[in-house]
Amino acid sequence: MNLWWITDAIAPAGRSLLAFLGLGVAMGLPAVAQPLPSEATSQPPGVYYSWRDLATEPAECLARSQQALNAVDIGDIQQVDNSIAGRTEDSTVVFVCIPNQANPAITTVMVIIAGQDDQASLDLRSDLQAAF
Fold first, then answer.
1. So where are the chain's domains?
2. What mean pLDDT comes out for the span 94-117?
3. Is the pLDDT at 12 greater than 70, yes or no?
């Protein structure tokens, strides 16, 4: 079953995407999400994320995440521990594969998109979900 639970959020101005989501260093994410410019120069990006559980191990989740990023032409791809991230000209994308401590055969995958164009970010999220 290809079911994604979807939750949308907007990051407050002046905070990084990862700090807003409370993931940061604790999740071992790469430093591709950079602090946002000040309010005086731009609006904060929309931050959209969704997640689902998979009957797979984290390594397979990361491989599928890499394939999804490649399928939609995401560049500057970096992988650190349980996450893989990249960017387009307008957006930053992060996949996080979180192993289930109670059941190692289950992994939760979260995809996070941050971008200035809300509709483009939502469309990119849909494309990544389909490619995953």
1. 60-109
2. 94
3. no
